[in-house]
Amino acid sequence: MSESGRIAYKFCYEISEHFSFVSLEEFVVMPNHVHGIIIIQSPSSVVGTLHATSLQSVQNEFMSHISPKPGSLAAVIRSYKSAVSKNIHLSDHGFSWQPRYYDHIIHSARELDRIRDYIINNPVKWES
Predict the structure, then answer these.
(1) Is residue 8 a contact partner of residue 29, using CB atoms and an 8 Å limit?
(2) Residue 128: predicted pLDDT
(3) CA angle 97, 31, 125 (to 5 degrees)
(4) Whole-prediction pTM
(5) 18 neighbors 71 (Cβ within 8 angstroms)
(6) Distance between CA atoms of residues 8 and 74, nearest Å
(7) Residue 60: predicted pLDDT
(8) pLDDT at position 110, please?
(9) How confident is the model at residue 63 (pLDDT cuts 50, 70, 90)?
């Protein structure tokens, strides 16, 4: 695994330390992407929206509208990608993420097993 991969792995492993309502079911860091199953419980506290000041009300309202909501998968992924980028950029200024990510809600134990197997076996498929 490359140094960038080790950084991505380390921060994957630490997600639940930063988000107490999140657990990582399974994950793997591939040469150019990451797969993971993230389980989100209800956040322990409700976080209010941004309160605008009179001079910044339009800008704050806009930013509040487009920013990931606290407790959401988007907020977790944004934080993860930010932490990984910050640390990788110390040695690799050319690193960048793809702008989006793929998410899927898992609806059954059977589906969870299928996706978990895919994640576990993906590195073997990559090498062949």
Answers:
(1) yes
(2) 57
(3) 130
(4) 0.73
(5) no
(6) 17
(7) 59
(8) 95
(9) low
Would you state the structure tokens that stand for residue 111, as one six-digit string?
């589906």
Indicate if the pLDDT at residue 49 is higher than 50.
no
4-8, 67-71, 85-89, 108-112: lowest mean pLDDT where?
67-71
Tokens of 6: 């080790």
Nearest to 76 by CA among 13, 15, 119: 15
Structurally, how many domains does the chain consist of?
A: 1
Which domain, by its residues, includes 62? Answer: 3-43+50-127
Q: CATH code at 83? A: 3.30.70.1290
Collect contacts of 116-120 with beta carbons under 8 A, ≥24 apart.
116/25, 116/26, 116/37, 118/35, 119/26, 119/27, 119/28, 119/35, 119/36, 119/37, 120/26, 120/28
Q: How far apart are CA 28 and CA 50, in angstroms?
A: 35
pLDDT confidence of residue 54: 45
| Closest by Cα among 5, 30, 59, 27 to 123 | 30
How far, CA to CA in Å, does 94 sit from each of 2, 58, 76, 99, 123?
A: 14, 34, 23, 15, 24
